[in-house]
């Protein structure tokens, strides 16, 4: 394992952490769950898409016979707001090793009508049932030790526009992907960071859904500012992460026609590639 | 444009081609379509997943107010068979630039009960409405001229297990990713090919859904044989392809725990990155 953050003095257990409290869903009826979306995971008033995916992922983990999201695809329909929401799930198919489900998150508009915010399709399995073999030679991203990386607390708001969510994350950006914060974007579609939860909760498959969508947009390093709303985000969880900080590497190959993709790789402290994701996002040019 | 295949003497128009005939859906009721799945797109008796995605994509293009799949995610539930099927679509949300829909393909089992084969969630837009700018410097894959690449017709079944679909495709594999066919897999998770439809039909967004899932599995070059069934496949169509052959490059970073991802990039004759896809597939080891 490379040099990494030392563990906080007080480490939250999984059940007691902010992330678990704010993604907890309450069954209302079979397959239907209430959730109070927390204002603690917002960026410039928008609820973070990874946090929302974790909420839906938790509801499906309860509704389906398998515990872990192997592959989960979310289409973001309308902007979620902090406050009450309901998640409705449907079991599409159950099999021996995989089950497939669908989930939608709804909130009420000002007239009391239900508006769908996100729809998700996912196949779940049990990561503990998988053989431990790795047959490829992919390498973790080259990222300096966490002590040489920078977070919001290290300067005058280097992570522009971060809001409440910044207090909940341990996010330390690789200085070589921080040019945008100094007015000198690299022109490369890359963003890399150490990632953890601020209260020290260890990673699990649900927090990986957050990790893939928690870094500043690669568009910043491509010289663009402004909002990059997610249209669709698919995450593959490939391995249960080991305790300790994660390394997240995000790459954009194709910024064209007002859209870009962001590919994320998440590596754990045992140097395993634990999650891969891709999202399609809109770019507000100009 | 690099050296490429010369056009066939008789070039099918889009409407008259085998691909269009075999993906044609017939409206039965609003949002419900009948289709006869052709046996012409099978590989070892299995209906190709990209062909099936194109069928669902065509139904959604009819049902939604926008014509082109910007991002489409499919979860493969049970094995489709050639023969009658029905596609049921649902319009999830319509917006000015994007609309989101869902579609499922069903077939009847031997007792006459409907069985769901595939479920899809997709956001559609209009590729012609996008600005033409490209802001990234991604390069097309290095692949030799088509005359130096190899297809099923060039040797004693070098593309192992290909069946009826081979007659419908112009598929010419880069010899540097053909080691598996000679008993000497490279050990790298790479597969590259020139791709087109055998009857000369030019590519369009729907045929891109086929192109991303038409090459031999990268697992062959990783030294594995046997079936690699798709669990989930997401395709982003980023640009309307120019006429002429496509170049398809597929990469696997992570073969672990009995699963692998396949990332595809599709480049058109104008050197535009027209589609990106990722699939999660199971590997039958041993």
UniProtKB/TrEMBL annotation, chains A, B:
InterPro entries: ACOT8-like_C, Acyl-CoA_hotdog, HotDog_dom_sf, Sec_Metab_Biosynth-Assoc, TesB_ACOT8-like_N. It comes from Streptomyces prasinosporus. Residues 159-283 form the Acyl-CoA thioesterase-like C-terminal domain. Pfam families: 4HBT_3 (PF13622), 4HBT_3C (PF20789). This is Thioesterase family protein. Residues 38-124 form the Acyl-CoA thioesterase-like N-terminal HotDog domain.
């Amino acid at each position: 394992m490379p040099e990494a953050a030392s563990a906080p003095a007080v480490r939250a257990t999984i059940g007691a952490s902010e992330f678990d409290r704010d993604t907890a869903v309450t069954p209302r009826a079979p397959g239907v769950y209430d959730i109070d979306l927390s204002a603690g995971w917002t960026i410039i008033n928008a609820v973070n898409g990874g946090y929302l995916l974790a909420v839906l992922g938790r509801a499906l983990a309860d509704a389906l016979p398998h515990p872990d999201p192997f592959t989960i695809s979310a289409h973001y329909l309308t902007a979620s707001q902090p406050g009450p929401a309901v998640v409705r799930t449907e079991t599409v198919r159950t099999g021996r090793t995989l089950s497939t489900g669908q989930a939608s998150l709804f909130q009420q508009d000002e007239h009391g009508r239900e508006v769908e915010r996100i729809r998700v399709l996912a196949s779940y399995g049990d990561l503990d049932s998988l053989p431990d073999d790795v047959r490829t030679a992919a390498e973790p991203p080259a990222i300096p030790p966490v002590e040489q990386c920078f977070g919001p607390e290290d300067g005058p708001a280097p992570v522009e526009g971060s809001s409440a969510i910044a207090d909940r994350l341990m996010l330390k950006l690789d200085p070589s992907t921080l040019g945008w914060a100094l007015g000198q974007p690299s022109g490369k579609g890359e963003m890399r960071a150490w990632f953890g939860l601020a209260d020290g909760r260890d990673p699990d498959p649900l927090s990986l859904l957050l990790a893939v969508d928690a870094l500043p947009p690669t568009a910043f390093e491509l010289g663009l500012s402004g909002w990059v709303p997610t249209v669709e985000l698919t995450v593959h969880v490939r391995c249960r992460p080991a305790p300790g900080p994660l390394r997240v590497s995000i790459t954009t190959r194709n910024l064209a026609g007002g859209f870009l993709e962001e590919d994320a790789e998440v590596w754990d402290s045992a140097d395993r590639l634990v999650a891969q994701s891709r999202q399609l996002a809109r770019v507000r040019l100009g």
